[in-house]
Design goal:
The complex is a heterotrimer of chains A (162), B (283) and C (768).
Chain A: E1 2-8, E2 11-17, H1 23-31, E3 49-52, E4 55-58, E5 71-73, H2 88-95, H3 105-118, H4 124-130, H5 141-161
Chain B: E1 2-4, H1 9-19, E2 23-26, H2 30-34, H3 36-39, E3 45-48, E4 57-60, E5 63-67, H4 72-77, H5 79-82, H6 87-94, H7 99-102, H8 107-113, H9 119-125, E6 129-134, E7 137-142, H10 143-146, E8 147-149, E9 152-153, E10 160-167, E11 173-180, E12 190-198, E13 204-212, E14 221-222, H11 224-230, H12 237-246, H13 260-281
Parallel strand pairs in B: 1-3, 2-3
Antiparallel strand pairs in B: 4-5, 5-10, 6-7, 6-10, 8-9, 11-12, 12-13, 13-14
Helix pairs in contact in B: 11-12, 12-13
Chain C: H1 17-21, E1 38-44, E2 50-56, H2 58-62, E3 66-71, E4 102-103, E5 109-115, H3 118-126, E6 129-134, H4 141-145, E7 163-167, H5 170-176, E8 179-186, E9 199-205, E10 208-214, H6 218-228, E11 236-241, H7 254-266, E12 270-273, H8 276-283, E13 285-286, E14 288-297, E15 303-315, E16 335-344, E17 350-351, H9 358-376, H10 380-387, H11 399-408, E18 415-416, H12 421-432, H13 434-437, E19 446-448, E20 451-463, E21 472-478, E22 484-487, H14 497-509, E23 516-519, H15 537-564, E24 571-574, E25 577-580, E26 583-589, H16 590-595, E27 607-613, E28 619-620, E29 622-634, E30 639-650, H17 657-675, E31 709-712, H18 735-747, H19 757-767
Parallel strand pairs in C: 1-12, 10-11, 13-17, 15-16, 18-28, 22-23, 30-31
Antiparallel strand pairs in C: 1-5, 2-4, 2-6, 3-5, 7-16, 8-14, 9-10, 9-12, 14-15, 19-20, 20-29, 21-22, 21-27, 24-25, 25-26, 29-30
Helix pairs in contact in C: 9-18, 14-15, 17-18
The chains are: A alpha+beta (162), B alpha+beta (283), C alpha+beta (768).
Chain lengths: 162, 283, 768
């Protein structure tokens, strides 16, 4: 076992891990943050997406031990990053029904958050590409895409209003 | 299982020497973690090679050099690989519709896997060389020699891939990439990369026609017959068709993912598409 | 009859949307660890059929950290050696003897280990030595049905006698026909493939057991555990969390019983989380059909007789032989014969998946109908409009009829409550521009180089619940501030059952959705509620919710009458306020009423509305749908692309349009998967599944298909609460029909799903 420290949503966690333990596993089972979901554990569903040093990655494909010293942001941190309030993406997913069962939602929101931070006015195609590796088995893509586009508009309007 | 994160190459080499075949160098980790259950069982040491300064893209007199731990998205975004002479590299990355994997997977990893990924196919079309390092020194070999078979390459125990070196292609070169898959976010079922260089008269002076993912050998292969069909001729639709038909010399795998018949058809179609793109891209 | 509504009909957000977007919603795999909890792993058979002749677990038991090992020697199945009656035994999904000495499919359980963590449990599995003696295995339905075929499992025949429905006189019917069209179809092996993985925690306290799991079948699991472990219902408590998708997968399953069994032996709470491989290869899949269809028509395109023989591959322990629903009735003919035969094979057990029965049989019927329309030269749209099912028609093959016969030896008549099929077909055809795009059978609507396009259509139906799913016991408790708690056992699989039931409650009580707090998922707290499948929630379950709310309203009006010194009959509630009808300024807010003492009692009132309702089945509400597809076949690459899709649904009143739109879209994506890339591939030699994960079992992603055009034909259903019928399952049913018919029109060859490049290539070759 290797003792490591993970910085997740600005909090520090000391955990002992084996090298092949995934970041997703450690965050869920050892740290106890279960908002990051694990559907396939082989990088094919997108549910475990989080931001690692600002970039979206599949945390099931990342060794936890290799996330030491990284800035890790999970769905639990999204409100905190938005002054304790729901992020416009979260609001949009709620209002536009960008979900059914909700299992893919955290991963979708993380991927979309990264997109909108780098591309405030994406086309529908760009939105779909940003979540291209994410599955929604309920098939709510229409409303997921709509949620992201509406959130982008809200954020642009807020930006313009400032 | 031990974990190391060496910060210089000599440290990495001594670890590789110490553990031999029981050590795995890891960077993007997508392949190993995606196959965790089977692959980690026999491993004694995991060597993280991301602190070795191997993430770079640079050009020199000999062509383009991409460090082994450079990620696909770094290639996608870099000005040397997203447009111009080597723009085909970004076009190849673009065909992988999984942004998160592109943020993790590295060119070194793709080169070592060789099958079921896209980049090696394009690299073979560009006569890329693999720069290999170890405590005994650094050596460079062609992609064709590097790949022995599915998940099997010329690395000796104690060695690792340091860099991919892509020679500067001649002037008047164009390239094209084509991919066939089951859904938009899939392993490639067939990928094809082509590169053509034209002489001053506009005839084909050099041609590379490569198919990957579908081959029986498990590694990208050049179609000698397709390339021969193109050489010294002016490329038009008829010639492209002739070259594509000639690609029957690439033997395709038949498995539950797709029949060999469809894969062969897609190799042919992919060559058509990729050659059309290559002709359009000549600059 | 229609009514004005203020909550029903609005796209209100899901009640648990906040928890979902913040990652706070707990699925079973997210539940916190319990004190002393251990983790279980299951050893599974590598053989499709074998006897466990020797098993040695001593090394596993000796491994530090291991708390228990169970094998067939523990005989946890006890007396339950065979499946019981198929409809009320373990959720239609009982897999027979648990950890039996005879394994009947690749993935069948051989042993279970519990240990301090999953890794130790996995390590222990490797230390178990098993010697198998292979037995003959059968993977083909027709082979399994042959006389002298090896027995698939240690009890019963490989196929049960057909479940048979006949009306009119089938021979006479075919004599009346000018043309008889015959056809045989099959489909692929679809798997439910929710993203979430099945998980549970089991814990014994003395002789009582608690189970936490994600499920749509709260009470059926309680009953199954009660039955299996021979406990009193008072000794079994099941807590259900929401499921991360289900589509029929999250009923009861062996793995829950295994967790309970090993928890008893280990004397610890046990957590068992299935791996993705296990979810895909050991829980269940959709029954694969093999259907022979025969339809008789007259020269003027009138359908006069129909006969179907529907084999369904149940795999090793599936148990389906009943007709499912009543899809054979979507065409009203005087003469018909329908046979359903469940067949066992040594493959992954099969069971219900979204659209069960209606999807498979409708596919067979509609392919044959398309051929029939071609035979008489009638536009398929016209043929459908001429022959389809109408309000008041008889549901000959309704499951209710079967069960009435089986349980009571009675033969009731069930009538269709409503049908908006004609409108669905007409509107869909218009949206597809059918008149211009349909150029005749096997004729592309357009050709552009090697790209050919074709259009196709299909109709289907599905139940909106079935009476035998049971009673619904619902309570509505009104709080002093006028908010309320609605208690229901409805499953939460993403279908928004909690939200839409609360909308019904809010509508009745004149409050807002946000005023309702839904309490669910606890067998001790909730009244028995129908297991949440068969699309029963809105058409059947909500009757009890509505009645409970009306019961609460009655009490509220009684108290308000005292408060306002009026007659209860003169009062109503709207906008959280009770008022005198006709003089609306005389009133009291619900909050004030509920928090103000009433003179007669010197106390504020306490209101608890309740209802327990079964469902009479003399009339059946069925959802109806017509789907239209335009596909493009690339004759160069043998690939298919969907260009346009129109889905028109009659689910009665649409209680929450956004929820229903998501349902329809979901059915579209899933059935497009069934039509193309979703197919479990069984190894011919071993019967093992070669693609047990999303790397190779390909689900449709956000880049794969165009958005469908979704329309609702809101035919008010007199029997449904606020005119509503079900929606969740039928959304899958007509999709593959429309796609296959469109492919036929594009290239002139009929191909059954999965429509793969290989099949397209062979079809194109056969044509040229």
């Amino acid at each position: 076992m290797n003792a490591i420290n993970l910085k997740i949503n600005n909090e520090h966690y000391d955990v002992s891990v084996k090298p092949h333990w995934s970041l997703a596993y450690v965050i869920r089972e050892k740290v106890g943050l279960t908002g990051t979901k694990t559907g396939c554990e082989m990088g094919t569903c997108g549910s475990c997406t989080l931001l690692l040093d600002g970039k979206p990655v599949f945390s099931c494909l990342r060794m936890a031990i290799d996330a030491q010293g990284c800035d890790i942001r999970t769905i639990e941190g999204v409100e905190e990053d938005n002054n304790g309030e729901l992020h416009p993406l979260q609001e949009a997913f709620i209002q536009d029904h960008g979900m059914q069962c909700g299992f893919c939602t955290p991963g979708m929101i993380i991927a979309a958050k990264h997109l909108l931070e780098h591309n405030p006015d994406p086309t529908e195609r760009e939105v779909r590409e940003a979540i291209g590796g994410h599955l929604c088995r309920c098939g709510t893509y229409i409303r997921i895409v709509r949620s992201i586009l509406n959130a982008a508009e809200t954020m642009r309007n807020a930006q313009a209003g400032q | 299982m031990e974990y190391y994160s060496p910060t210089d190459l000599n440290e990495a080499y001594s670890l590789l020497d110490k553990y031999g075949e029981d050590a795995i160098p890891i960077a993007g980790s997508t392949f190993y973690m995606g196959h965790r259950e089977e692959l980690f069982d026999e491993v004694e040491a995991v060597i993280n090679i991301k602190q070795l300064g191997l993430s770079y893209i640079r050009q020199d007199d000999h062509g383009l050099r991409i460090g082994a731990t450079t990620t696909l998205n770094e290639i996608f975004a870099h000005e040397l690989t997203s447009k111009g002479t080597f723009g085909i590299l970004a076009e190849t990355v673009k065909e992988l519709n999984i942004n998160e994997v592109r943020n993790m997977a590295t060119i070194g990893g793709e080169v070592c896997i060789a099958g079921e990924v896209d980049m090696p196919t394009t690299l073979l079309a560009y006569d890329a060389n693999i720069v290999i390092g170890g405590s005994k020194g650094v050596r460079e070999m062609s992609m064709a020699d590097f790949h022995i078979g599915y998940l099997n390459n010329a690395l000796e125990p104690g060695e690792m891939v340091l860099e991919v070196h892509i020679p500067q292609p001649p002037a008047n070169t164009g390239a094209g990439f084509a991919k066939f898959e089951r859904t938009a976010a899939d392993l490639p079922i067939v990928n094809v990369a082509t590169r053509i260089s034209l002489d001053n008269a506009g005839a084909c002076a050099e041609a590379r026609v490569v198919a990957g993912a579908a081959t029986l050998s498990g590694v990208p292969e050049r179609s000698a017959a397709a390339e021969a069909a193109l050489l010294n001729k002016v490329i038009d639709d008829t010639l492209i068709e002739t070259a594509a038909v000639a690609s029957g010399d690439i033997e395709c795998i038949h498995d539950f993912r797709m029949s060999a018949e469809i894969r062969s058809l897609w190799v042919k179609c992919g060559i058509e598409d990729a050659l059309q793109r290559a002709v359009a891209a000549v600059q | 009859m229609t009514s004005e509504t203020s909550v029903v009909g609005k796209s209100l957000p899901l009640l648990d949307a906040y928890e979902k977007v913040t990652g706070k919603l707990k699925y079973a795999g997210d539940l916190p660890a319990m004190h002393r909890m251990h983790h279980a792993k299951v050893l599974r058979s590598p053989y499709a059929h074998a006897k466990v002749v020797h098993i040695d677990t001593s090394a596993a038991e000796a491994l530090p950290g291991v708390s228990a090992v169970i094998t067939h020697k523990d005989d946890i199945t006890g007396k339950k050696k065979t499946c019981g009656s198929p409809w009320h035994d373990f959720s239609f999904n009982f897999m027979g003897p648990m950890i039996s000495p005879e394994v009947c499919y690749v993935g069948d359980e051989v042993a279970v280990v519990s240990a301090v963590d999953e890794e130790t449990a996995k390590e222990a599995l490797k230390l178990i030595e098993v010697e198998y003696e292979e037995l003959p295995a059968i993977f083909d339905m027709e082979e399994a049905m042959k006389e002298g075929a090896p027995q698939v499992r240690p009890w019963g025949p490989n196929s049960l006698p057909p479940s048979l429905f006949e009306w009119g006189n089938i021979e006479e019917g075919f004599e009346q026909a000018d043309y008889i069209i015959e056809n045989r179809i099959t489909l692929g092996n679809q798997q439910h493939a929710p993203l979430d993985r099945n998980a549970c925690i089991a814990h014994w306290e003395g002789d009582s057991v608690s189970l936490w799991t994600s499920t749509q079948a709260l009470f059926w699991i309680r009953d199954a555990v009660t039955d299996f472990f021979e406990l009193s219902p008072s000794k079994v408590r099941v807590y259900s969390t929401p499921t991360g998708g289900s589509f029929g997968l999250w009923w009861g399953n062996n793995f829950m019983l295994l967790a309970i069994a090993i928890a008893r032996k280990a004397r610890r709470p046990i957590r068992l989380v299935l791996t993705r491989d296990e979810v895909q290869t050991t829980v269940k899949r959709r029954e694969r059909p093999l259907i022979d269809a025969k339809i008789g028509i007259t020269k003027d395109g009138k359908m006069v007789s129909q006969s179907y023989r529907h084999l369904m591959d149940n795999g090793a322990y599936g148990n389906k032989f009943d007709p499912y629903q009543s899809v054979a009735d979507i065409y009203t003919t005087e003469h018909a014969r329908v046979e359903f035969i469940g067949v066992a094979t040594n493959l992954l057990p099969a069971g219900c998946m979204r659209g069960v029965g209606d999807l498979t049989l409708a596919y067979a019927i509609e392919q044959t109908v398309d051929m029939a329309a071609e035979r008489v030269g009638m536009d398929p749209v016209e043929f459908h409009l001429k022959n389809h099912w109408k309000t008041g028609d008889i549901c000959h093959t309704s499951q209710e009829v079967v069960f009435a016969k089986l349980l009571f030896n009675k033969n009731p008549t069930v009538e269709l409550t409503s049908s908006g099929l004609a409108e669905c077909i007409t509107r869909g055809a218009e949206a597809m521009d059918w008149k211009n795009k349909w150029k005749g059978w096997g004729t592309p609507s357009s050709v552009d180089g090697h790209k050919v396009r074709g259009v196709g259509m299909g109709i289907s139906t599905h139940i909106s619940g079935l009476a035998f799913f049971g009673f619904n016991g619902i309570t509505v408790k009104v709080n002093p501030d006028g908010t309320m708690a609605l208690t229901t056992g409805i499953g939460r699989m993403g279908q928004a059952g909690d939200t839409t039931q609360a909308m019904v409650c809010a509508e009745v009580l004149g409050v807002e959705l946000e005023d309702i707090n839904v309490i669910d998922g606890d067998t001790e707290v909730c009244g028995h509620t129908m297991v949440t499948f068969g699309s029963n929630g809105m058409h059947m379950g909500a009757r009890a919710t509505k009645a409970a709310a009306e019961h609460a309203k009655e009490q509220i009006l009684e108290y308000a009458a005292k408060h306002l010194e009026a007659n209860p009959a003169d009062l109503d509630i709207k906008n959280r306020r009770i008022f005198v009808k006709g003089s609306e300024d005389r009133g009291v807010t619900l909050k004030e009423l509920m928090s103000t003492p009433i003179f007669e009692y010197l106390a504020a009132p306490e209101v608890i509305g309740s209802a327990s309702k079964g469902v009479e089945f003399d009339k059946a509400g069925k959802m109806m749908m017509a789907d239209f597809a335009e596909v493009e076949i690339d004759t160069r690459t043998a690939q298919m692309k969907l260009i346009k899709f129109v889905a028109v649904h009659d689910s009665g009143t649409i209680v929450n349009p956004a929820v229903c739109e998501n349902q329809v879209a979901g059915g579209y994506y899933q059935s497009m998967g069934l039509s193309t890339t979703e197919h479990l591939v069984f190894d011919d030699e071993t019967g093992a599944i070669l693609n047990p994960n999303f790397m190779d079992y390909k689900l449709m992603g956000p880049l794969d298909m165009p958005d469908p055009e979704i329309m609702f034909e809101e035919v008010y259903d007199e029997d449904g609460p606020f005119g509503a019928k079900g929606i969740g399952e039928g959304v899958t049913c007509a999709v593959p029909i429309a796609i296959s018919n469109a492919v036929y029109n594009a290239i002139g060859v009929r191909i059954d799903p999965p429509i793969t490049p290989d099949k397209i290539l062979q079809a194109l070759k056969s044509k040229s």
